[in-house]
Each structure stands twice: as structure tokens, then as C-alpha cells.
Amino acid sequence: MTIHFQSRKARLALGFVMGIAFGFLLQKAGVARYEVVVGQLLLKDFTVLKVMLSAVVTGMIGVYALKGLGLARLHPKHGSWGASAIGGLIFGVGFALLGYCPGTLAAAIGQGNLDALAGGLIGIVLGAGVFASLYPGLQVRVLSKGDFGDVTIPQLLKINPWFVIVPLCSAIVAFLLWLEASKL
Amino acid sequence: MSWLEMKEWSPYAVGAGIGVLSWLAFVLLDTPLGCSTAYARTSGMIERLFRGKKVYEKPYYRKFVPAIEWEWMFVVGIAAGAAISAGLSGAFVWVVVPEFWALHAGPSAPLRIAVALAGGAILGFGARWANGCTSGHGISGTLQLAASSWLAVVCFFVAGVLTATLFFSAFSG
Q1: Residues with Cβ < 8 Å from B33, sequence gap 6 or more?
Q2: Which helix (H) or strand (E) holds A147?
Q3: Are A55 and A19 in a shared domain?
Q4: Under an 8 A CB cutoff, do A56 and B75 touch?
């Protein structure tokens, strides 16, 4: 039993408000800047990883706690080696050339980056459209290869999720402390 | 100076804020936060302008119906939120060629737009291939400990680091 909103209007309004909060946060962290994203990929500026990893630690502990209280359900995405690994590598190439990701691109447009608007936005919509056309063939030939379903890491290891969450979050915090100590 | 007008917040404060947003998404919307689906729905909506209702017969658009959903409003909200943040701190500025790009690849605006267009197309294609992006897999999926997301995000960064390194060494070499 969860308590989420069902009505379309409420979901659209809530999506918009949460988007404003997300965009505000991305802009304040500087991760909507081309320099910061490319700096991360050149391993010179670790702002992107700092934001992502602290979001993952906060989110993971909270969402699993909410799940324990019956207030949230997990929705892990279905995956396969053909889809997640190959798609991930293609994404990475585009990520480096564009210097924004789909989320930070919208934030970059909001702060005035015209390369994000005139180049990136049109490109992403075009790429998604081409994929939609090729989807039936790719599904048979590649995406279904090495399918492992919508499994989570604790399910794979057949252990209580907190035996993964506690060590993993500790390791992430240690890594972030090391980044700070190394002045990265 | 009020904290809303500050140019930059600590990345850890921002990350924690995004983590809290993810709690709200799970509780209030029963869904993880993600961005790239909105772009796929947009491409479907544009295709509908040319091909009409036939678009709905495409298997991919049967899965992701081309319509305005909460994620679409979420992505529009991101642009609005960033504009508000940049406006409050005086950081809003129209830029075509980012400074770092100009330093390495020169000041040509058409070149930057062309590479952003090509990069965007590859990124959009890859995001749908992997079924998620840096938000849907990179944050929402990894925090759920989804196996698909941890695999995808490692691949995002491996290919991203290699491509960025090769790209910029081509200009400086």
C-alpha cells in the first residue's frame, strides 16, 4: 500500500515542481556547466561524482527505509548485457562530445547555454527517434542478449539489502573523504 | 547575501537535496526520477505531426506513448529551476561556445553546435538503448541497487572518460 498521487493533473504539477527543485540544485552545483562535466570526464574536476554519489547515499538509505515502512516500492529497471552495457558505452561517447546529459542539458538551457539548445536538444530528440525506428530489430538482435531482468544486487547475492547498503555507503563516504583530502 | 542568491552550493548539499527529491518521487509519484524518457516521447510527438496516428503503431511508442507525462513536465521544470537559480545569483548569461571548448577547439560556433548535435544524437540513441541516463540509471537506479543501473553507469563513465581524453588530446596534440 503506497500513498502516491494517481490523478494526471496532480502528477503533472508535481513533476513540474520537482523539476524546478532539481534544476535549481543542478545549477547551484555547477554541474550544468560544460566545463564541469568535461572536467569530470577528464578526471580533473570531481564535482559531478560528488553530487551523484552523495545523492545515491542519501537516496539509497532513505528509499530503502521508506520501503521498510511500506511507503515506497522499488522499480529497478530491466537490464541485459546487450542493452545496459552496449547502450551505456554509446551513451558515454555522446556524453563526452555533448558535455551535458539529458538532465543537465535542460538546466544548461535554463542558464543560457545556446549550444545545449541549438545542438544538444535537437540531437537528443533525433537520436531517440532513430532508436525508436530501429527498436524492433535491435530488440531481437542485441537488447535481449544476456538478459538478467530487473534484479537488484542484494537479490543477486541473496542477502538482506542492508548488508549491501551499509558497506557500500561507507565505501562511498570514504572515497569522498579521500577526494577532499587529495584536494580533487 | 541570502543562500538562494549564492552562485555555488556545496556539491554534497546539492547531492543530499537530490537524494531527498528521490524520496519524494518514490513516495508521492511511485516512480524513480529520470529524464531521457521525456526526450523519446518528444520525438514521438514530433513524428506524429508528420505521420499522424500511425506513430502509435510503432512498437517503441506503444511502450513509451508519445504524450506529455510527469517526466516531461519534470524536464521542463529543470530548465525553469536552473533559470531561477541563475537569475537569482546573476549567473544567467547567453553562451554559444563554452570557454573550455574555445580554449582547446577554437571559437567557431558552427563547429561547437555541430559537435553538440552529433554528441546529442549519440547520447539520445544510447540513452534509449540502455533504457536510462545519468538520472534514471546514474542516480535513481544505483540508489535502488539495480544491477542494470550499476552496469550502465560504469559503462557511461568508461566510454565518457575515454572519449573525452581522446577528443581533447586530438586538439592539444
Answers
A1: A18, A22, B21, B22, B25, B74, B135, B136, B139, B140
A2: strand A147-149
A3: yes
A4: no
Identify whether residues A180 and A90 lie together within a single domain.
no
**Residues of B whose CB is below 8 A from A89:** 126, 155, 158-159
Q: Do both A92 and A155 map to the same domain? A: no
Same domain, A105 and A166: no
The answer to whether ipTM exceeds 0.90 is yes
pLDDT band at A1 (very low <50, low <70, confident <90, very high): low
Question: Per-residue pLDDT for B173 more than 80?
Answer: no
Cell triple for A97: 562530445
With cut-offs at 50, 70 and 90, classify the pLDDT of residue B25: very high
CB-count exposure of residue B90 (10 Å: 0-12, 13-18, 19+): exposed
B139 vs A56: CB contact, 8 Å cut-off? yes
Residue to substitute from B3, B18, B41, interface A, most A β-carbons within 10 A: B18
| CB distance A88 to B130 below 8 Å | yes
Predicted TM-score of the model (pTM):
0.97
What is the span of the domain harbouring residue A98? Answer: 79-148
Domain count, chain A: 2
What is the C-alpha separation between B121 and B12, in angstroms, rounded?
31
Same domain for A127 and A177: no
* Cβ-based neighbours of B78, under 8 Å, separated by 6 or more: A19, A20, A22, A23, A26, A103, A106, A107, A110, B35
Core vs surface per residue B32-60: b (16+ CB within 10 A) or e: bbbbbbbbbbbbbbebbeeeeeebeebeb
